[in-house]
Design a protein that fits this description.
elongated; two-stranded antiparallel ribbon; 4 helices; 55% helix; 138 residues; alpha+beta
Length: 138
């Protein structure tokens, strides 16, 4: 999995290492898929689904590759992969633990009062700003 190929030169102490271009591409595609999927959730739901899937698969591959980099002598791809995961993982963690605003609670109480068919509220995830994805049972 490593793209850290060494090109020998006349002087063995001056080896030239290639940049981990595959790690850059993987990190870019993963971040684009993850954040693009979140951005297009309401505009293009089908595209959002596929972008989130690409982002999730990219994150899994990046984690496996990062674990494999721990056993290499000088992994050049590790900082790139770690930076991509550090950028995208807290977004998923903190969005599910965020507290709802008072406006959101008031609006949901109005819906609950007027719609008698709502039996159970399973929770909500903050998408961005004042936009939430709510799970309801009818």
């Amino acid at each position: 999995m490593s793209t850290d190929q060494v090109h020998p030169t006349a002087d063995p102490s001056q080896e030239i290492r290639r940049s981990p271009w595959f790690a850059y591409v993987l990190a870019g595609v993963t971040l684009l898929g993850w954040f693009g999927g979140r951005f297009l959730m309401f505009l293009l739901p089908d595209a959002s689904y596929w972008l989130l899937l690409i982002g999730a698969i990219g994150a899994i591959v990046a984690m496996i590759w990062l674990i494999a980099c721990a056993f290499l002598p000088m992994p050049r791809a590790a900082p790139v992969l770690l930076a991509a995961l550090v950028i995208m993982i807290p977004r998923g963690i903190f969005s599910s633990r965020s507290l709802k605003s008072q406006e959101w609670n008031r609006a949901f109480d109005k819906v609950r009062e007027t719609e008698a068919a709502i039996l159970r509220f399973h929770g909500a995830t903050r998408l961005s700003g004042d936009f939430y994805l709510a799970s309801l049972s009818y």
